[in-house]
Task: inverse folding
């Protein structure tokens, strides 16, 4: 126990004083859990940890605890995914009194593999870079091997039988001489396949010598810039002379009328739980969201040729939106009034890894207006009431290789929760001998964005998991179909529209494609306002073009989360992953498209809303060599949740 | 000329020192123009001015002048719409040396009437409120007549022959006792029709006595509020210690890489002209937008019954987005770093009317990121570059009776222009005897938002006029259709999408409905980047549900601007109005749907992009008695306009 005592000493000062069942594992808890597994596991080969996080307590227990947070904390339990002996193993480990106990363990025998670790990616790259054939290929090209860097690419699944599927990745190469913008200088033609379990290069090929695009003008560092510079503007800043209005105790946040729990998970990043809003009329807190997070992020590239066809990434399940989150830069990644928080996750070896400034929280005032009116109908009176709009933002930024995803949760005093997804970073470039579009006669699957560089067409589909509990656990999903009607001719008007309510009784009724005018409600069928409207929230969907891959194409089977923009499932603690749990090389056996085929009852049940937003991205030169941010998002908006505008009685500023 | 000299004395100090052909008429110019008309016109009946604005100079002349702004100013000419002897008259008046000369005048004989004046609306209301039958109807209801207010409602067009159509409006009544929120307390059943030309009540009816909803809880003034108040947060502000970065000379604005002319028109509000962006690589200004503004705003309500069917407003043409713009409140309608500008328009009597703080300009920093990347592929190096996003916003707020429209133009350093439309204010309420939804058996065309109050279903369709001149006058419109393809089977991938370019040669080719994945480009077919891509901008469309009225219903014929979300026309100085010039009681003879039927050539022509965004609004209780802001918008984004990211060389902050 000496080890435990040491860790207690080291980490005790950051143990939260306010505990909540969804608190992420502390560094000490991570250490206890992985030590327990290591000491109980007969290590005949190397053991790598791919996921270490809390095992979500039973919802019933959490809700009981929430009703009385002074009751004893719920038992702590960890869920662990590890890899050993070429097998994926799942563990449940309970933690009590500074000790861990293995509650259960099992071998996962389905399709797909766990999230890659950062360490094994680094190891695979190192291995590939030292591989003699790679070295000689680079030398043959006249490249300085010390300037070659590698990157790991997952390779998807293309119809292989389960027993033929190995946990392999491709390591591809880029050249960093004269620029840090390696993504626009791929050393194409050279490819290695690395088996991550055995950590050996299993395949190598050097098929063709491609052109290396020039480095000039591709570096994006201020330090490498020469004049003329882009136009500058004078300093601008957000100030809060009395400090921020939010209060963070442990992982629990209070701000304005909102209370919620904020956690950070290595797979999905930010997790918001047990969010409730204070109803000033009812003088009580009312539940809105039991738990929500990003679930999966599907990025299929649209070049079907040999060196690109497999690039059909599932970023959350393959790389980890939390473990690939990057340190935020104060004043720039978040404004000066932001507060930053560190996060911890389990490293491959089981030791806690600290991510400094993993997420930030700030009040946002963009100059917008919460509500206003100028009244001129009343003679002799000037009536004008304006309420500025201040909201609370929680931001994390995940970088998957070349792309940067800025992911914001925004809580508004009017009860809305808004989600913003902003894409920036560097587009993946493919080399081409062409220097001018006039030379191009063939399909290039993208756009010539610079000499010798094609920006390849691709998509980003993000599915959010939103376990809404609107004023209670049992909810229903209603489509309000805006429908045209002819009049009876009693007035000169010939037509109008009205809302035809369609109740989704089963999972398959709920699926939606954004082609027809429809309002999407999550309601509590057991709660009404005093005048009899069903209490609810409305989804104002984000951008969602219909998917364009063939339904039976392998990437579309794995990425079926984008078959619809809305799905509803009955709550099931094990169903959290829109693309399935083990997506690396998975066959798509557990996507939303599959699990909803059971067509379970969803009326007046504890239900989960899954919302997919998407971007088709056909690159342009203006996005080279680094991409101005492109944003999209969606909103959950109270709809007959309140008796009236909940910010009517917001004081004048 | 003594009069002119007096006005010269009064207004000289505000004559712009920098002149531009699109400068709005100065107060002196307004006075000269209307005095000229008055003194040249044989006044046998009253003469009312409905529009006084500049007559847009010939585009060729403007472009010549722009190329050398030190050349003499272009001649000033005003366009005037007036009403006299029950006729609509159009005048062109030239202004030179402080004198006006009538260049042309004509009587408009087509369908529809000009924009209502503020003064005639007030007069009509006063008339109706004093009308003996109205007074007695109010007294019969036990209402205090001094607490009754009126409001003017345009009544649309429903198939009447032209010679049967009179310039009449309805004046409806509301009760202000105990609340200033008159819109939720309509005195229904009593209706008057007022002939605006004769200024007489032509019809009166008192058909039924309806319930008057209670006033309690409907007032939105801070002064009328009792605790408990909505949650408060600590002060937050935007500061610019060195002041703003924009320079305004006369009506010309320079900010960062943008230069444009900013004007204010009584019909459409903000007008942006001759906007160009400085290209740091080419070291020159490049044209983007010759002129842009809101063109029309169509608001059809969806209750086809006797008292509501006609409510199918065309706000710009009927009420004037500029003349109905309201004074902005510093610190609240726009943030503290905003600068405010006054505007002038011609009143009904021809005298200039000053609108204080008609629009504001401010730099916006919402904590967003212009571009960023963290690079972890290069061992041993921490590379992180982040550029905060600061933009320039121009805001105006127009209040049409109950609704407040917050209209923002946003210029971004990356070359994008974003347009935001935010809806707030008060929903129109219809009374009902019902106090609970369980009592409702019939169709109510909306939602019971409070006891005795139905929020009626309605739409807001906004069409923007955008005369883009992308790097020159001759442009083309291209749809990039995202199309699925099967592969040849040479790799395991079965499908991909690619962009199939469809060039719009004629007006009817260009029309678009937002149902299929498509990229919408305005390109300059005569200009290429150095690597051969057509220089262009892309429209990222705003929300646009398909219209739901029958095509042959009268409101839809007048509001055909929402038949499609994109229309392209060849530039024609006289085609500026998506719903036609004279929309009050108009037959829709000049909507976009009609004018594009000529199917003119649009390839490699000076073309205009019209973009319609829309909101279907099914009310909710949370929006009563005043509505939390609901926003939508769209973006014009450079697409191969620049050789590369134009803000790559933005200095680190």
Result:
């Amino acid at each position: 126990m000496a080890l435990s005592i040491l860790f207690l000493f080291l980490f005790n000062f950051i143990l939260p004083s306010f505990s909540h069942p969804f608190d992420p594992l502390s560094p000490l808890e991570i250490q206890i859990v992985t030590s327990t597994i290591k000491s109980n596991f007969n290590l005949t080969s190397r053991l790598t940890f791919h996921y270490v996080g809390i095992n979500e307590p039973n919802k019933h227990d959490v809700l009981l605890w929430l009703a009385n947070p002074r009751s004893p904390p719920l038992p702590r339990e960890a869920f662990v995914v590890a890899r050993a002996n070429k097998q994926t193993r799942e563990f449940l480990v309970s933690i009590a009194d500074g000790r861990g106990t293995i509650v259960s363990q099992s071998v996962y025998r389905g399709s797909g593999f766990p999230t890659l670790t950062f360490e094994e990616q680094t190891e695979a790259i190192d291995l590939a870079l030292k591989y003699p054939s790679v070295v000689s290929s680079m030398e043959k090209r006249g490249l300085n091997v010390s300037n070659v860097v590698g990157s790991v690419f997952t390779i998807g699944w293309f119809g292989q039988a389960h027993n033929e599927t190995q946990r392999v990745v491709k390591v591809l190469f880029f050249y960093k001489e004269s620029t840090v913008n390696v993504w626009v200088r791929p050393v194409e033609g050279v490819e290695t396949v690395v088996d991550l379990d055995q950590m050996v290069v299993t395949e190598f090929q050097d098929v063709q010598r491609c052109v290396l695009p020039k480095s000039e003008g591709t570096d994006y560092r201020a330090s490498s810039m020469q004049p003329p510079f882009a136009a500058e503007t004078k300093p601008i800043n957000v100030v809060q002379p009395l400090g921020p209005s939010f209060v963070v105790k442990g992982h629990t946040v209070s701000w304005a009328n909102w209370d919620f729990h904020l956690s950070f998970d290595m797979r999905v990043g930010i997790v918001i739980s047990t969010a409730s809003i204070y109803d000033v009329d009812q003088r009580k807190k009312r539940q809105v969201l039991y738990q929500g997070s990003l679930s999966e992020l599907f990025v299929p590239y649209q070049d079907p040729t040999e060196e690109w066809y497999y690039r059909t990434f599932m970023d959350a399940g393959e790389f980890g939106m939390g473990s690939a989150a990057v340190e935020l830069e104060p004043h720039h990644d978040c404004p000066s009034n932001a507060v930053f928080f560190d996060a911890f996750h389990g490293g491959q070896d089981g030791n806690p890894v600290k991510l400094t400034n993993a997420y930030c929280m700030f009040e946002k005032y963009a100059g917008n207006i919460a509500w206003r009116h100028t009244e001129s109908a009343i003679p002799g009176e000037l009536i004008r009431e304006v309420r500025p709009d201040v909201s609370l933002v929680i931001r994390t930024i995940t970088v998957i290789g070349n792309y940067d995803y800025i992911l914001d949760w925004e809580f508004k005093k009017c009860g809305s929760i808004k989600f913003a997804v902003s894409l920036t970073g560097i587009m993946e470039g493919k080399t081409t001998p062409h220097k001018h579009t006039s030379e191009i006669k063939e399909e290039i699957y993208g756009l010539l964005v610079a000499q010798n560089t094609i920006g390849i067409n691709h998509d980003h589909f993000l599915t959010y998991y939103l376990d809404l509990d609107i004023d209670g656990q049992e909810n229903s999903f209603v489509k309000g179909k805006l429908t045209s009607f002819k009049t009876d001719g009693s007035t000169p008007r010939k037509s109008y529209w009205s809302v035809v309510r369609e109740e989704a009784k089963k999972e398959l009724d709920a699926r939606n494609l954004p082609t027809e005018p429809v309002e999407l409600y999550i309601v509590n069928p057991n709660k009404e306002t005093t005048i009899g409207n069903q209490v609810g929230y409305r989804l104002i969907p984000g951008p969602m073009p219909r998917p364009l891959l063939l339904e039976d194409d392998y990437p579309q089977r794995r990425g079926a989360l984008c078959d619809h923009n809305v799905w509803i499932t009955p709550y099931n603690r094990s169903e959290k992953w829109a693309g399935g749990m083990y997506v690396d090389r998975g066959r798509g056996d557990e996507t939303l498209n599959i699990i909803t085929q059971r067509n379970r009852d969803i009326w007046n049940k504890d239900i989960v809303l899954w919302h997919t937003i998407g971007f088709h991205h056909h690159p342009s030169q203006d996005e080279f060599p680094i991409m101005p941010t492109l944003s999209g998002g969606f909103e959950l908006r109270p709809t007959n949740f309140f008796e009236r505008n909940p910010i009517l009685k917001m004081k004048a500023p």
Summary: The longest helix of chain B spans residues 27-40. The CA atoms of residues 222 and 229 of chain B lie 10 Å apart.
